[in-house]
Description:
With 277 residues, the protein is α/β, with parallel strands linked by helices. Helices cover 49% and strands 19% of the residues. The chain has one domain: Alpha/Beta hydrolase fold, catalytic domain (Rossmann fold), CATH 3.40.50. Residues 1-16, 25-29 and 31-49 have low confidence and may be disordered.
Amino acid sequence: MLLFEKKKTFIKFKCCKTKVILMKKMVFYGKLSLILTVIFCSSMMTNYLIAQDLKSIKYTDGKQSLVGLITSNAGKEAPGVLILPAWKGIDNEAKQAAINLEKEGYIAFIADIYGEGRYPADNAAASKLSSEYKTDFVAYQNRIKLALTELRKNGAKNVAVIGYCFGGTGALESARGGLDVLGVVCIHGGLGKAIDRKNNPIHTKVLIEHPANDQSVSQEDYNGVIKEMNEGHADWQIITYANSKHTFTNPESEDYNEVMAIRAWGHTLMFLKELFQ
């Protein structure tokens, strides 16, 4: 009888312990759910606030409708910065850069390279579409020219170009095409070009912000762009960021390196200040 009572007590204890563990797990997952909800809502609110501070500008390339975004100081006379977004089109990194540039006194315009109805839905589509413009670099340069025209219509006098990833390639194409800009910043952009393209004179200043561990850029392309800059007698500089992979400046990327991203942004602002002084 005594053994039975002990066993019964043990079973009750075990049941109570299980209930406590289950309750702790419920509390933990409840808190986790709340945290994830707060993060999601904060992200949505951030995106909303960014969108509130930027105004859509519609323009065209023939029959293709394009929609760029411009900062709220448009219409004032100020230096202008054209932002060329990454391969999926206008994203949060480009939007945040525009807002930050406005705080520094610049009118910033984010170009729409692809156009309405042509925005890629995934990486595969983005790779295909961006490759088309890398191959047809004249079409890419033309879309950049159109965006520069819109930026100048909205008060920008002297202008520079910055670009991320695919947009970084576009920044270099602005220099290669002799576009009327004071300088360009290529941020983790592709550096190569077709081997049958000649190295022409480059009159604009060039800053390349290159992540040291960017597997998308071959040593051949890296050496090639240095040769191109030298043969073009360009005023150029490459800054290499240690322990950084391809999209190191994008907070939404698993490659994000906060320390190096902050440094790169500081270098961008230093370069722009020099251009517009």
